[in-house]
Amino acid sequence: MTEGRSDLPYTAGRPVSVWTSLHYFNIYRLIVASVFLLAIFIYPRTSGFGSEHLRLFVWTSIAYWLLAIFFYGALKKIRMGFNRLLSLQVMGDVLAITLMMHASGGSRSGLAVMLLVVLAGAGLVGQGRLTLFYAALATVAVLFEQSWRVLDAGADFADLVQTGILCIGFFATAISARLLARRVIANEDLARQRGIDLANQLSVSERVIRDMQDGVMVVDSGETVRQWNPQAEALLGVRPPPRPDLAAFSVTLAGHYRNYRSGTKERVATLRVPGSGALLRARFVHAGASGDVLIYLEDMGRIQQQAQQMKLAALGRLTANIAHEIRNPLSAISHAAELLREEKRTEGQQRLSRIINDNAQRLERLVRDVLELGRRDKTSREPVRLAGFLESFLDEMAMHEQVDRSVFSLSVESDPALLFDRTHLNQVLWNLLSNALRYCSGRPGAVRIEVRDLPSSERVELHIMDDGTGVDEEARGKIFEPFFTTHSRGTGLGLYIARELCEANDAVLEWVDNQPGAHFRIIGRNQRWQENQNAEDSRD
After folding, report:
1. pLDDT 10s per residue in the chain (540 long)?
2. For residue 137, how many other CB atoms are within 10 A of its CB?
3. Is 511 helix (H, G, I), strand (E, B) or coil?
């Protein structure tokens, strides 16, 4: 919206800028009335004002000055329509100037020119057809004054011709002011609409930049960071410094920026973040004539992870098809090995049949795990009360693995509800607890399961810890890779499948540390998150 006095009234269909123009019109009237009044009091005889009727000119000037003060001071208090208020003011101007012109010798006094200024101002302020009415009003007043002068004072009849030409100028001025005002209104509306569009575009751009996965920074020629998004802070591992110099964000990035400023082409550089060791790719692009430079920061680890996920997805589809095809012949081999064991054979033959059966069962587990990957996207999440679920699960696992139930220690805070596919959660816990049982000491409480509710973040944490030797330092970066195993009879898919199933349920599975055994943590959403999401959807 155009700038103006915010305390001026606002009427429907009349923007604040129109009332501001009327305010300035009142100031002009007050100045003109003051000039007339000062001129007649300081130079009563030499100014030429009131040459025929000095007293009429004086009293008219005083009345005009008081009227100007009234309109200026009462603008905010008069409860009147805009057109009516403007018409009242213009009629006052026409009447006062006409009387002063009559007292000063008619149109030859030059005061009629002041009516042109009034009509031009009224046309710009009013911006409507009333400008023609104002021109007609001024024409009638001037012609009446000149006619009175011809009939009463015996003035030259030829002066009417000059007055007529002046009246034509009234209409020309009014029409020109109206056309100019229409153009001003159109430009003002266009500027206002473009301002709204620009504000909307800036809002959208800021939202897009803020939510980008890549970091974005705008740096000027003096290495001052003018803008940046939260992802840039996260990738560089810094908080906004008090003085946003590029070196305060990253000394290495500032060095690459200086090298780029010395050239003219787009440049890509890589840098490693101190502390986290994350590898970033920085891309420098000129932002235009301003001389600013856009710096895009990309997490190379995320890019590599995405590429790996694509490869693993393609590999998963291939291996799932292969596993499905070999399952039938594998079942036949297992069945044949069982039949061989039932026949009376020598000890060597029994050992060979046992080897065939053991490896067939191992291949069967591998096939089952691979086929389980194909069902990761088929989720049916529901609120799972962890206290009761884990009690039943641990009883079943202790019975199946033929271990004492006291090996498991369960601690649950406030019995939260985890949003998870029940079948997937069963598979994830089975894989994690199987590994924990394999490496723990077997004493009571050797495997600890802790459930922690985080109401502030609408999350639930499920911790699984054992008292074994933990994860070797060399294996820590590979434990979630497919087909990586440290057990002679393992398939290497247990932790990989567990992590994939967690991601399918919008949860995270991660290795925390050794305490002294392996410590894994599942972070998932609780039921309150779903309730809040449903509430937001209903409001939308």
Report:
1. 333 344 444 444 456 667 777 777 788 888 888 888 887 777 766 566 767 778 888 888 888 888 888 887 776 666 667 777 777 888 888 888 888 887 777 777 777 788 888 888 777 777 667 778 888 888 888 888 777 776 766 666 666 777 778 788 878 888 887 888 778 777 877 888 888 888 888 777 777 777 777 888 888 888 888 888 888 888 888 887 777 888 888 888 888 888 888 875 567 888 887 766 678 888 888 877 777 888 888 887 776 666 666 766 666 666 666 666 666 676 777 767 676 666 656 666 667 777 777 677 666 666 666 666 555 556 678 888 888 889 998 999 888 888 898 999 988 877 788 888 888 888 889 888 888 888 888 888 889 999 988 877 678 889 999 988 888 777 777 777 776 676 656 556 778 888 888 888 888 888 888 877 888 999 888 877 767 666 665 655
2. 22
3. strand
**CB neighbour list of residue 351: distance below 8 Å, 6 or more residues apart:** none
Token duo for residue 319 = 């291996």
Bridging pattern class, strands 447-454 and 459-466: antiparallel
Tell me the pTM: 0.41
Go through 261-283 and write b for each residue having 16 or more CB atoms within 10 A of its CB, e for each that does not: eeeeeeeebebebeeeebebebe
Please state the domain extents for the chain: 16-195, 212-302, 304-373, 381-534
- 304-373 has which fold? Helix Hairpins (1.10.287)
Residue pair 446/435 in contact (Cβ under 8 Å)? The answer is no
Q: What is the residue-wise DSSP string for 412-441?
A: ESS--EEEEEHHHHHHHHHHHHHHHHHHS-
Distance CA 126, CA 184 (A): 12
Q: Please calculate the CA angle 242-247-251 and round it to the nearest 5 degrees.
A: 140
d(CA 416, CA 384): 8
- Select from 3.30.70.600, 3.30.420.110, 3.40.50.1260, 3.30.450.20 the CATH code of 212-302: 3.30.450.20
What CATH architecture applies to the domain 381-534?
2-Layer Sandwich (3.30)
